[in-house]
Write a structure and sequence with these properties.
The chain has helices at residues 30-44, 53-62, 67-80, 111-129; strands at residues 3-5, 85-93, 98-106, 137-141. It has one domain (3-7, 29-141). The model is unreliable at 1-25 (pLDDT under 50). It is built from four helices and four strands, in the order βαααββαβ.
């Protein structure tokens, strides 16, 4: 069973902000590439990526301003679910060229306790900070 907190969606996003720089027609410089690599490395130090590194790189390229939120979220999720596996994944909706990141938490505790912790986490931190994710971050506990 999956418990999910729903992301807050912003309505007034411009379409230029939905595309990575290279897709929007702005070439990236070597320093921009290095900056992105550092951001991806910082996420990789805490989250499990699995085989989705290329999707996560594209997400970071397009939404580098969300990396600090993802790092902060990890600290709070890990504090609430210290025994859990915490994975970062990205889904890309090709028709709209939009990206959404998922913080996937697999707690190794009984479901009722996980559900209670998720409710506490939502009330204590997630809901208060959700707008920092620009409607592009979803937390999933299963």
């Amino acid at each position: 069973m999956i418990c999910m907190t729903t992301p807050y969606k912003r309505i007034n996003s411009s379409s230029a902000n939905l595309l990575p720089r290279s897709v929007a027609g702005k070439p990236e410089s070597r320093s921009a590439t290095s900056f992105i690599e550092k951001k991806v490395t910082s996420l990789r130090e805490v989250y499990e990526f699995g085989s989705a590194v290329d999707k996560i790189e594209k997400f970071v390229r397009a939404y580098s301003h969300l990396v600090d939120f993802l790092l902060d979220a990890y600290k709070h999720v890990q504090a609430k679910f210290p025994e859990a596996t915490i994975k970062l994944t990205v889904d890309v909706e090709s028709s709209a060229k939009t990206h959404e990141a998922f913080i996937r938490v697999t707690p190794h505790i009984p479901f009722p306790e996980a559900r209670q912790r998720l409710d506490e986490f939502d009330d204590a931190w997630w809901i208060k900070n959700l707008d920092r994710g620009d409607g592009r971050i979803t937390l999933v506990v299963r």
